[in-house]
Write a structure and sequence with these properties.
The chain is α+β, with helices and mostly antiparallel strands and 145 residues long. The protein is built from five helices and three strands; from the N terminus they run αββααααβ. Strands 1-2-3 form a three-stranded antiparallel β-sheet. Pfam families: FliL.
């Protein structure tokens, strides 16, 4: 009886060991596959020339010059942005010219404007392609006068 108990215990231990090894191998293989899966590179598209708009600030006219570059991982989104360049430029000119000097004077205001500009570009690309594959929008220059 004691020998049967030891044999059963050894079989259970061996089975448990093999089960844990197979789970570890699968998890390691999945992690290795995820690490080796090719990630598409970032594609940057500068929207040239830089945007220059004027806006009112109490009694004086102010000027804003903004350089914009968008980033995506999808070549189709790049082509959609190139095809929709006039629409994107119009949306961003309207957005930039509706700003106030006080609203853009601090970092939070610039970040809010950046988020609004990204949303505007994403909406236009989504209308064109059916998905908004624009990952980021960067201000490459920002001058207020």
């Amino acid at each position: 009886m004691l020998i049967v108990g030891v044999v059963v215990l050894l079989l259970l231990g061996g089975g448990g060991y093999l089960f844990m090894q197979s789970r570890t191998a699968k998890a390691g293989g999945a992690a290795a596959a995820a690490q080796t899966a090719p990630k598409t590179p970032e594609i940057y598209l500068p929207l040239d020339p830089a945007f220059v708009v004027n806006f009112q600030d109490q009694d004086s006219t102010r000027y804003l010059q903004v350089g914009v570059t968008v980033m995506t991982h999808d070549p189709n989104a790049v082509q959609a942005m190139k095809d929709s360049d006039p629409v994107i430029r119009n949306a961003l000119v309207m957005l930039f010219s509706s700003q106030t000097y006080a609203g853009l004077s601090d970092t939070a205001g610039k970040q809010k404007l950046q988020a609004q500009a990204l949303d505007a570009v994403r909406k236009i690309v989504a209308d064109k392609t059916g998905k908004s594959d624009v990952d980021a929008l960067y201000f490459t220059s920002f001058v207020m006068q």
